[in-house]
Amino acid sequence: MAQVKSSSKSDPNYKVIAENRRARFDYAIEEDIECGIMLEGSEVKSLRMGGSNIAESYAAVEDGELWLVNSYIAPYKQAKTFGHEERRRRKLLVSRKQLAHMWNETQRKGMTLVPLVMYFNHRGMAKIKIGIAKGKKLHDKREDAAKRDWSRQKSRLLKDHG
Question: Number of C-alpha atoms within 13 angstroms, CB side, residue 115?
Fold first, then answer.
C-alpha cells in the first residue's frame, strides 16, 4: 500500500486532488488498485482548481462495470451551459481481471471498495486509488489510536534524550 505523495520538483503534472484520510481509520485496507475515471471537460477543469471531495463516496461493481458513487466535484463557473452534475455517478476504468477480482472480494463478508486518494498522475491524467477494505470494529479503532499515541510518545522521548 504505497501512499501517494506530491512530488512537484520531478513531475510538474503530478498533483493530489482529494484524499480520504478517514478511510484508513474506519477500514482495514487489504490492497489498493489504481483506476482511471471517465470525466467531462468541466469536471477536469474544476479538479485542476482543486474543488472535490471523496470522503463520503464509495465504489461499487454493478452490471459488470465499476462506478464511483457520491463523489463531489464542484461546478465550474465558466462552463455555464455545458456544466456537469456535482454528485453524478462516474465510471471507473479498470481491466477485466481487476474488475473480476474486486467483485469476488466484495462478495466476501464485510468487504467494500473505498476511494483513498484522487490525483493527477505524471502524465496529467486523473486517477483514483480504490482500496479493497474491511470495516473496523470499535475496539480495533481504539487499538490503532493507542498504537499511534504510543509511537508519538516514543518518538518524543527519543528526540528529547537522543
Answer: 30
Buried b (16+ CB within 10 A) or exposed e, 64-89: eebbbbebebeebeeeeeebbeeeee
* Lowest mean pLDDT segment, chosen from 19-28, 64-73, 132-141: 132-141
E strand or H helix at 142 = helix 138-161
Cα separation, 74 vs 43, in Å, equals 8
Cα distance between residue 12 and residue 141, in whole Å: 37
Residue ranges of alpha helices (H) inside 28-95 are 41-49
- pLDDT, tens only, 35-87: 999 988 888 888 888 888 888 898 998 888 999 999 888 888 777 767 677 78
Query: DSSP alpha helices (H): ranges in 54-137?
Result: 96-107
CA atoms of 105 and 141, how far apart (whole Å): 22
Residues 51/74, Cβ–Cβ less than 8 Å? yes
Task: Kindly report the pTM of this predicted structure.
Answer: 0.76
